Every structure is written in C-alpha cells, then in structure tokens.
Amino acid sequence: MNDFAHGSRSKQPHFVLVPLMAQGHTIPMIDLAHLLASHGALVTFVTTPLNARRIESVIQHAKESQLPIEFLPFTFNYAEAGLPEGTENLDMLRHGLQEFAAFLEMCFSNKDPLISYLREHETPPSCVISDLSQPWTGEVAREFGIPRIGFLGMSAFATLCWDITILHKIYDNVTDENQPVPIPGFPHPLEIPKTKSIVSFYAPGLEKVREKIAEENSKSEGIIVNTFLEMESLYIDSYEKLTRKKAWAVGPMCLYNKGLKQMLSRGNKASIDEERCIKWLDSMEKGSVMFVNFGSIANIVPLQVMEIGLSIEASRKPFIWVLKAADKMPEIEQWLIEENFEERVKYRGLIIKGWAPQFMILSHKAVGGFLTHCGWNSIIESICNGVPMLTWPQFGDQFLNEILVADVLKIGIKIGVERSVVWGSEKSDEVMVKRDDMKRKVLELMDEGKEGMERRVRARELGDKAKAAMKEGGSSHKNIELLIKVVQERSN
Ligand code: UDP
C-alpha cells in the first residue's frame, strides 16, 4: 500500500470497479480507475489472471506512480460453465454469441469472493461501479449498503436508444427485420430497423441473464457514460428524464492516458514494436494515412479480408491495416504469401497482425482517416484525435454509433452496410462490401475537396471540445469530481 493511499484511509472513498472481461469494456474501466485514483479515490479493480497479465505494464505503472489502485484477480470455474479452461475474456470465445450466456453466468461466481475480500479490507467500500452485464454486483452493493452505478461503455445516443427499446419492447412484434421502426421519445426523429438495433446482439439462451441484467439495472443509482456533454448533452438529458437517474458524462476517458506510454497497452500487449510504428508514421505526410481496424471481437471472414486488402491497395493511399484473423485463419496468411501482398504494398502500407497500439496510431498527425467497426471506444478515440471515420458497423450498438458519427455529428461517412452479422456465426462466403465500393469510400473520406475539408474541420473542432471537457474546469473533469464528492458524502 502506498503513502498516498494511507494518508486519509478511512475517509477516502473506495470505488469497486467490476468490468466485463472484454477489451471494449475493460479498457475504459481501466481509464476510469486511473481517473478516480488521480482524483484521490481508492480503487479496487476486479480482473482475472490472464487479463492481469495482458495489462502488466499498467499494473506496474500504477504501483510505481503510487496510484491507489488495487488489481484483484479472480479465477473462474470453467468446467462448471462448460467453457474451455482459461476462457477469461470475450475475445477467447470461439463461438461468439452461442457461448456468451455461459460466459456471463460464469462471472456470477465472483460475487462471494468479492464480498469476502471487501469485508476484510481496511477501507470499507463506498460505491460499486459495475458493467451493466454483471448483475451479481447488485448483491455486493446491497451487502455493504452502498450505491451501484452502472457502466455500459456505449454512447449516450445508443444507451438512450436501448433503454427506449427495452421500455417499449419496440421490436417484439416486428417480423420484417429490415423495416425501419420509429424510436418513440427520442429527442429527434429516429428510425432503426431491427437488424441494425442492439437487439441484433440477442441470442437464444441469453433471455434469463438479460432479465437479471434488466432487473438489476432498474435498481442501480445511475450510469457512467464515456462521453462529454458538449457532444451528447441532448441524449444525456433525455436519458435522465426517461429513467430519472443520473448519467455521469466523464469522458473521453482515454484522454487520461495521453502521453503515458504504459497506458498504451491497457488492452493488450501490442504485436508491433511501438517505436517502429511511430517511425513508419513519421515517414508519412500529415493526414495521409488510412487506419483500418475492426476492434477486439469482430470476426471478418477471409473472403472479406482479402477484398479489404485489395481495395485499400487500389486506393493508393498509405495505410495501416490491423489483421486480427491472420493467426486464426490460415487461408489469410496463405493469401498474403501467394499474392506477395506485403512486399507489394511495403512502401505504402503497414500490416499489423494481432493487437495494434490503436490510441497511439490515432493520435499521430499522419493519420487522416479511420475505417472502423464503430465500437464506441474506437469512435471516441478517433473523436479525441480529430480523425474522420469511414463507418462499417458489425452488430450491437455499432449501427447506432454509425448514425451518430455520420448523420448527427457529420464527421464520418458510411461504407454502406445495411444489416448486422451474427457474432460467432459469420457466413464464410459472404462479402458485405465489394472492392470497388470500398475503394470509392476510402477516396471520398480522404478527399481534400470542399466536403472532405469541412468534415476534417468538424472532426478537429469536436476533438478540441473533447480535450477541453477533460481539462481542469471542463465538464467531464467537473463530473468526476462531483461523482467522488457525492459518493464520499454518502459514505460519511
Ligand atoms: N484496440 C487496440 N488495438 C487493437 C484493437 C482494439 O488498442 O488492435 C482497442 C481500441 O483502441 C479500443 C478497444 O480496443 O479501446 C476496442 O473497443 P471498441 O469499443 O472500439 O470495440 P470492441 O472491441 O468492443 O468491439
């Protein structure tokens, strides 16, 4: 334990953070842990041995800089859950949605060990901040008589839309999944077909756990949203009116780590030497590079991967292409070799096979566009860095994020995908976006004509607002302080 933590131990508010073990949920929670700790709160962060190993440098950094964050690794009973030994993260599920319910239920077993740990802790817990997918944390909060605040990791836009969807059961009787359905009570007209809604992430077997999640969330005292008021106050206000709960906009939380090398690997260890990556980017012209990455869990089928490679090559734009599937799908590796692809593009393209230091790449001045699957973290990281986006949503909240980026904020363009894929059951012979269409969209995004320049300016201005929100006196900075104050007053 460090001196800072010892200083006013008994009075120090103690936040217990419980993420969903998936990069898109854990990364912003790690940022939140640092934000809270840097504002003087004590943080217990629940993790697992494998996930802790992935973020070794972050844990080390917290220790060295005497930040009061305790990382608490719990193991699971895999056999009981029917999952392979060592399945500790969503990105390890081989069958995606089919195994999702089992994975979520396996996490419930953390309840008793966490309660025992907190009972023994010298500083009583003051607040549980829990991923909304972890309903068991409600019992932990009740055990200690403390508030439970939810975290979902989505935009306020998508969070509001989801709450309305649940409240009005708007897709219950919809038979045509492509038919646009109005979202009643949304602050502006919005129609979403079932295939583009969050319901697209539902799967048989998830009903029971979904019920538990909804029930527990109706009891939670509010939510943390990784956004900022200058961008999403309309949806934050509507959410608060609809649910009568506080929505704390405290983002973009990724800005906490700006400039901190250790925080770049807060999701996983990068598969490329960061120095090499920076050197490559330094050698490119400002705003010229297209960055292509589909997040941590989306599975792009080999035929589509090849089509992406050929179109980005045909665009003749410099690019960084992150290939997640290369190790899992030998046909991609074989294709790269047969085509001599890497050699062919070597003066213009950098291929990263595995985990890329995404935040670092997006913050480099050479990057001028981001082809993204529209995971909320990817979008908010792009926004912080003023990078316009080409949006290619896959499932879940991603189509809603696409609407926010392309139609509302006008800092991106849509690649044109009209329906979701089923995570884990992707059709191997399906090419959703053809080579020429993608090439056209890449050129449109990177274009330096009037429209392209206006989009760039809007993206840059939004990035400036994001940074201002996180600075002392900014809206998100104030909200973090207020959150800590409210929790502290309650526990006193
Ligand atoms: N990420 C990364 N390198 C990768 C892939 C993803 O650093 O190669 C990070 C990315 O910066 C973001 C998170 O992982 O913080 C992905 O979250 P997002 O919500 O964008 O998508 P998800 O993976 O949940 O679909």
From TrEMBL:
Family in the record: Belongs to the UDP-glycosyltransferase family.
InterPro entries per UniProt: Glyco_transf_N, UDP_glucos_trans, UDP_glycos_trans_CS
Protein name: Glycosyltransferase
Boundaries of every Glycosyltransferase N-terminal domain copy: 16-253
Organism of derivation: Rhynchospora pubera
Protein's UniProt keywords contain Glycosyltransferase: yes
EC number: 2.4.1.-
GO MF term list: UDP-glucosyltransferase activity
Top EC category: transferase
Keywords: Glycosyltransferase, Transferase
Superkingdom, natural source: Eukaryota
Signal peptide annotation: none
